[in-house]
């Protein structure tokens, strides 16, 4: 994976919990172009790799702009960006990738929940420039917690529904009227899991391929009923405890071991580690059946047996 060393050129607080970071390359390099929906992976100051959608124009970019929410349950990634990535800070990034590309059609319905507005905002600006028909539904807790609301109102007010639920589960937006009749429209949705589950539920009767989702966490890294276990690092001759709310990768990092990772969601294969003993609870999406006795993806998988021996 190509990495580029970047510097925080500007930082802007968009809401009390969302900050926008403008990153410029330190060396004279031409930044790769990208299309709306693309993300970069940032090695955050904590060492955790995190994916963030790009919000700026991807044609001949001089910088990459991301907006990051400080997640209340942050396991180091977003909190360390907020606490440590001030102007002048240097960070490694991986070049843009796009798992949420736009299709070329005439009509679009763009649905964003909370910080999911970042790829949606980028798509809206791009489609508007191309003269496409678009509508936006932007749902969030409150106006103060809605990134880019002023900018969106300035450009899209008559084409946008904004709904705030103030955290009341009984006041969430009802998407049924918007999706009851399948149309030639393509829907692009990014937001928290409950929102995406809701859109999936109410759009089940749409023809295949019309509803597109951005899902940064295809697997749960840590689940509520997870328990602590131990990993033995054979080469290092050390044992490390993996707490119930940390991945093996995070526990190793916390214990001072340098680890390679990229997606941290069990999809890229970077953290593949040889398993010497113990039974793993495999949660990744990359290992083949025949590999599962001998390898483990330490960013997401855990122990079934209470103890794993790794070739580290
Ligand atoms: S870091 Fe990508 S699979 Fe573990």
CATH superfamily of the largest domain: Nucleotide-binding domain of ferredoxin-NADP reductase (FNR) module
Task: Write the CATH architecture name of the largest domain.
Answer: 3-Layer(aba) Sandwich
CATH C-level category of the largest domain: Alpha Beta
Question: Helical residue percent?
Answer: 10-25%
Work out the number of β strands: 18
The oligomeric status of these chains comes to single chain
Kindly report the spatial arrangement of strands forming the biggest sheet: 4-3-6-1-2-5
Whole-angstrom Rg: 21 Å
Q: How many strands, what sense, and barrel or not for the largest sheet?
A: 6 strands, antiparallel
Bound molecules: FE2/S2 (inorganic) cluster
Report the end-to-end length measured between terminal Cα atoms: 22 Å
- Total of domains: 3
Strand content: 25-35%
Low-confidence parts lasting 5 or more residues at pLDDT below 50? Answer: none
């Amino acid at each position: 994976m190509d990495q580029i060393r970047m510097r925080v050129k500007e930082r802007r607080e968009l809401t009390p919990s969302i900050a926008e970071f403008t990153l410029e390359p330190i060396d004279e390099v031409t930044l790769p172009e990208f299309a709306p929906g693309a993300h970069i992976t940032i090695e955050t100051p904590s060492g955790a790799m995190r994916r963030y959608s790009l919000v700026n124009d991807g044609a001949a970019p001089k910088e990459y702009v991301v907006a990051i929410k400080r997640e209340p349950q942050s396991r180091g990634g977003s909190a360390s960006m907020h606490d440590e990535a001030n102007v002048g800070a240097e960070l490694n990034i991986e070049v843009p990738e796009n798992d949420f590309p736009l299709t070329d059609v005439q009509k679009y319905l763009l649905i964003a929940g909370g910080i999911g507005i970042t790829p949606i905002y980028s798509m809206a600006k791009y489609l508007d420039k191309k003269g496409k028909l678009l509508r936006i539904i932007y749902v969030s807790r409150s106006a103060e917690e809605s990134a880019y609301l002023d900018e969106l109102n300035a450009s899209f007010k008559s084409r946008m529904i904004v709904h705030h639920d103030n955290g009341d589960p009984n006041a969430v937006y009802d998407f049924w009227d918007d999706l009851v009749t399948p149309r030639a429209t393509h829907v692009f949705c990014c937001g928290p899991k409950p929102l995406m589950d809701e859109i999936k539920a109410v759009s089940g009767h749409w023809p295949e391929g019309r509803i597109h989702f951005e899902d940064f966490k295809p697997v749960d890294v840590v689940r509520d009923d997870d328990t602590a276990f131990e990993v033995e690092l054979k080469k290092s001759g050390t044992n490390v405890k993996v707490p119930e709310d940390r991945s093996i990768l995070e526990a190793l990092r916390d214990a001072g071991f340098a680890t390679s990772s990229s997606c941290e969601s069990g999809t890229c294969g970077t953290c593949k580690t040889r398993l010497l003993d113990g039974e793993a609870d495999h949660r990744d999406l990359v290992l083949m059946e025949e590999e599962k006795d001998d390898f483990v993806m330490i960013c997401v998988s855990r122990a079934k047996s209470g103890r794993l021996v790794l070739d580290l």
